[in-house]
Each structure stands twice: as C-alpha cells, then as structure tokens.
Amino acid sequence: MDPILYNRQAWDRQVESGENPWTKPVDSTLIAKARAGQFSVLLTEYIPTPADWLPPMKGLRILGLASGGGQQGPLFAAAGAEVTILDNSPKQLDRDSQVAAREGLTNLNTILGDAKDLSMFPDETFDLVFNPASNVFMPDVRPVWKEAYRVLKRGGTLLSGSMSPVLYLFKEEDLDAGNLIVTQKIPYADTDHPETVEKLIKINRPLEYGHSLSDLIGGQIDAGFHIIGFYEDYQSDNALSRHIASYVATRALKP
Predict the structure, then answer these.
(1) Which of 66, 142, 185, 196 could cysteine-pair with 134, CB 3.0–4.6 Å?
(2) pLDDT band at residue 106, thresholds of 50, 70 and 90?
(3) Model confidence at 237, in pLDDT bands (50, 70, 90)?
(4) Which DSSP category does 97 fall into?
C-alpha cells in the first residue's frame, strides 16, 4: 500500500461523507468578520491559535501546509494575506476553491501535493507556514520541518499542531471503552498493524502515525527553528482527555 495515495483517497471520502469537522468550510459570516480583521483559526481541536502568534495579515505570504478544507485559508485571504493552500486531498482543496469563488477571494490559490516535498516553491517564499494538526497522517515529519524551514523567509514563522504521542499508546477501541491500557509503542504506525489497516479501509478512514516528541519538537529544532511558543489542547470524546491533553501546538521562528 502507498500510504500517501491511500490517505488522499480516504480524505476525499471524508469530504464526501460530510461527517468530519475538518472538511466543513467557513460561511460568509466568518469571511465578513475576517475582512474586518476579526477572526480566529485552529491548529488543534478547540483552543484558537493565540492572536499574538499571527502577524498582521495585509500582504503576508502564507502557506497553508496540509491545510485544505476551506477553513483557515479563506479566513487568512479575507484578512488580506496572499494564501497558498497545499494539501494531499483534491476534494479538501476544492473546499478552499469553492469558498474563494463564493467570496471573490482572488488572493487564494491551491496546490495538490505532499507536505514533505515543497520543491515547487523557491527558497524563502513565505512569511508564515500554517500547519494544523495534520502531520498525524504523514509517515515521517522530519522532512516536513526541513521543507517548511527552507521555504520560509528569515524571521518567518511555522505554526503547527500535532497529536501528542501519548494518545497512540492505547488502542482506539480501548479508549472508546474508557480503558487506559497501554498496548502500543511510540513511534506508532497504523501500517504496522494489518488488522487496524483492514478496519480503516472498510470505514474509509485515513491511516495515522504517532510521532515521537524527538521528531515533533526535536525535528523542528534540528531543522533550524527556534521554538518560541507552545500550548496543549484536548480531544473530544476521549477517555485520555480526562487525564492529559491530546494535542500540542508550537510556534517556531526561522532566525
């Protein structure tokens, strides 16, 4: 199985089902507020990205990295940024294109691609790379950080949300049953568990990967970033969330 191709098809099916909240585009009311400078965006599930993590939008060059779905990108564009959304799912990108067409956002464009390969962009192209919690669907995050560093201008910022590796110590069915029984190890990959892959294929769900903190945080530092901001967030309907956060978010500066 090619995990990138499989996840592309799985995310397209997520869009078709309409059940995944990350596939639901913003409405015209939120676009109007963003045009007035009043908006918030999510790196993780609940807590909005801190306002002081976002530079002034007017003329800012932003790469929405694995950020399709018609959510963050259109709001950035409505606030005045020049936005490029790169995503592995054509139908997630269609969400952004649909909002852009509906709202007349000519400063938003989309590119189909893999987050670890940004070779279509020259060095130091963007002021901000915005990467919501999507590296959980990527087999290897270290190349993603290196490419993000390369395409950022000096003084630019990478904002990224990630799943905490603690989540992947437990089988999903155990968490659903409220049983915190450690049965898995980190780093974790669905592809190492044939029975899990078979189940995910049947329900059209993407493959997931639980990355170590050495790769999630250390990988950004090794790529050259300075970590200058951090927070945690919780996941809904999850037994683990009664004890510890399931997401981490980082603000990283390219010096």
Answers:
(1) 66
(2) very high
(3) confident
(4) H
Residue 150 is which amino acid? R
Other C-beta atoms lying within 10 Å of the C-beta of residue 168:
22
List of residues 6+ apart from 228 with CB closer than 8 A: 251, 252, 253
CA distances from 26 to 40, 64, 103, 109, 236 (A): 11, 15, 11, 16, 21
- The DSSP code for 133 is S
Provide the pairing of β-strand 82-87 with 108-112: parallel
Question: Is the pLDDT confidence value at 236 over 90?
Answer: no
Question: If DSSP codes are grouped into helix, strand and coil, which group holds residue 249?
Answer: strand
Pair of tokens at residue 85? 């959304």
Tokens found for residue 164: 């905490």
Banded model confidence at residue 1, pLDDT cuts 50, 70, 90: confident
Over residues 194-222, mean pLDDT: 97
Let me know: does 215 contact 187? Beta carbons within 8 Å.
yes
The answer to whether the CB of 160 falls within 8 A of the CB of 250 is yes
| Percent of the chain residues past pLDDT 70, beyond the cut | 100
DSSP class of 50: P
Q: Is the pLDDT of residue 161 over 80?
A: yes
Distance CA 212, CA 129 (A): 22
Helix 90-103, helix 3-17: angle, nearest 10: 50
Domains and CATH numbers, the chain: 3-164+211-253 (3.40.50.150)
Per-residue CA distances from 11 to 20, 42, 68, 71, 91 (Å): 9, 19, 10, 15, 8
Alpha-carbon span 28 to 45, nearest angstrom: 22
Q: pTM of the entire structure?
A: 0.97
